[in-house]
Amino acid sequence: MARCHIVFAPANRLSSGENGGKLAVHSAVRFRKGKFPMTDHAGESGGQPESRRDFLYLTTGLFAGVGTALALWPFIHSMNPSADVLALSTTEVDLSPIEVGQSITVIWQQKPVFVRRRTAEEIKIAEQTPVADLPDPQTDAERVIKPEWLIVVGVCTHLGCIPLGQRPTEPRGDWNGWFCPCHGSHYDTSGRIRKGPAPENLWVPKYEFLDDTLIKIG
Amino acid sequence: MDIGKKISTAAAIVSVAGLVLFGATSTDVAAIEAETPENQDWQFEGVFGSFDVASIQRGLQVYLEVCSACHSLNQMAYRNLADLGFNADEVKAIAAEYEVTDGPDDNGDMFQRPARPSDKFVLPFANEKAARAANNGAFPTDLSLLTKAHPAGPDYIYALLTGFEDEAPDDVELAEGMEYNPYFSGGQIAMAPPLFEDSVEYSDGRKATVENMAWDITNFLQWTAEPEMEERKRIGWKVVLFLLVLSAMLYAAKRKVWANQH
Amino acid sequence: MSTHTQHSSSSGGGLVKWIDSRLPIFTYLQKEYGEFPAPRNFNYWWNFGAILSFMLVIMIFSGIFLAMQYTPHVSLAFDSVERIMRDVNYGWLLRYMHANGATFFFIAVYIHLFRGLYYGSYKNPRELLWIFGVVILVLMMASAFTGYVLPWGQMSFWGATVITNLFSAIPLVGDAIVTWLWGGFAVDNPTLNRFFSLHFLLPFVILAVVVLHVIALHVSGSNNPLGIDPKGPQDTLPFHPYYTAKDSFGLAVWITLFAAVVFFAPNFFGEPENYLKANALLTPAEIVPEWYFLPFFAILRSVDFNLWFIDAKLGGVIAMFGSIFVLFIVPWLDSSKVRSARFRPVYKWFFWIFVLDCVLLGYVGGHAPNAKVFEGVDWLEFIDLGHVGTAWYFIHFLVILPVLGMIEKTKPLPTSISEPVLGGGQAAAGAAAKPMEKA
After folding, report:
1. Which residue in the set B15, B21, B233 is minimally distant from C264, CB to CB?
2. Residue B2: closest CA among chain C residues belongs to which residue?
3. Is C437 part of any domain?
């Protein structure tokens, strides 16, 4: 239950009954910013200059406000990924069982990652595509470490569906890469968007080769 | 001011004292049967307390080499060891010495693999029943929270580990398989004395007496129970100091607001 | 009315008026908090209403963020709380704030209640205000009880078992009620899940009753240390800025104490046994509730004898619920025409004896009934103190309050809050002439 404190700054200190001046709303008890009013019901305050009184109220209010803001941070930060979730932020994948032309899906950070061992044909087409043709211009070299292996996050950059094309029976779209059935985005053999509403190429996660057949994603 | 206020203040203080008393003593009954452990001076005690990291690292060694045979540490993950000053490779190496069950693999079978930092500490037994079966029906309690689970906490663990006696007193008849320890509730404990001189060879060369090992393992267990302790006290000082200043400012503001009413 | 309404150039003024003309929330708040006339002679015991509001906000806030991370299943609850303590960012802070928040919530509510008893705040025309307050207390107890079960520690489980088992004392329908509460044949997963649901719900019910409580307060206006009604504006001050300033200061001191406990002694008020996972096959040596329930626990256990057809178990249950019920009817039990204990010299003593009685009952509640109070003194057990404490508790309400009001010679009341008293009662004159001394 937040308590609001309405602050009055009456124009005339002597007319203690007047409710003149602006109505400024301040939020709960601890969010005290700004002036305290000058009303006093017993008449003159006794000669205290307003500015000195204001300074105290202002600094106190700011101090309390800053404290409250700092106090909110732990609550907000508690919603950020916890240590155990962060500990699972990398995944190692063994590439040796994957044959040429085969795709596998692995889970990384609760998302699917497509690992495709590309054929020479697929690599050639990907490398030779003119960058100017691409809605999201990127060369194939920018998207792979070893051309034989394409590793992309299998989440359509439009609205998040998982594109089809991993299995031989699934449609791969007009460019032989992946096809997203939700709104018709077509991706090529480098995972780049060619046609459809998706704004960006399939995202390439950070990964490294630990040796020839082992990668670590994340 | 007047006598009424003095009475009310005094009674309020007595009431608060009473509150504190029964807050602090409400569970002393369980310990009546057992001897009260002596008070030790732990580095982590008090508002300025901190962790004796060297001791905790030795305690980790004691746990891994002695206690983990029977006692689980199910709230800790290997990655937590990074807080003790081990770097990422060292943590990985420590974890890799243990095996965890993972799976199912693509054939539907479970398999063993070396533990990773993200894994929890490997349990010595698959489940409670297995633990009991291996220990004459007694269950070796999990150690993660032990220092918080007993009123005297660390003092109790230290006293227990150093308090085993060869002979039970005449008026105590030990049941089959039990040992005598005056600090354990009832005096009879199913655990044989776990620590002997040089049970462990400390990598820093410190003498592995029973007292030293008990000291180190207690420090270690205090850390496993409250890993956030140092951060908590550090932030605590900042918060309390801030609030004291804010209270003073609000007092001054209040006096100013009320100035014309006095 | 004022010629200065447009002198502010800030758009805040315009927006506020726009909203206010459609939903007069600002006018309402201005009237109820900005200008609301409060007696000018409040002492610091009057801070606790604001402190309680703050504690409710803290509990709801920390509780909601904890609920994001907690799992209400018997296999996962304990570990989910430990995960909050270890892995969730600032999780330990959320948990300790919530657990110690409950303690501080009860400290404040007991002070607030005793303030009411001392100054006669429950008397006409504030009877309903008082009743709402006791309702809030009962809801707080229910919230605390269901909440304590959630970590699923040893004390969570066994405390729930003992207290839910009490209902079996009710004749005829008792067992059916207990089975219904449990959702099974013992405290188990169904119980835990429904307690989580209820624990989430009840604070918002408390919030609603607090709103009623404050509305009722604003109908009659606050009581004050002298217990006499304000006669006019000379006896009151607008709530803002006088009491907003004073409440803010008091609140800051309170939060400082709270922070000191949360950061430096977070387990002081807690039960170590609850750091052991619940084990349905192992009863702890001592089953004890949290400190704020200890007096009622002592009353429950003090009825260890049968009374006619009422067996000890049922007798204990009746005594325990009776000790709370009796609070509801205090406005009608106390026959005194004088509100404040400041002018009731005999009642004042009985009040403090009652306070000590509650402390005694709390102390008794924390010990096994048959344990010796003093080593070596065989004839005095805690149950004996419990008998005395419980008897006195009911004597205070059912005998002292009605009788004293009729026979007590009270001190003369001052004529008003702000005017000095001419003659009669030096203490009253002192109190009336300098109401702001200790403000």
Report:
1. B233
2. C427
3. no
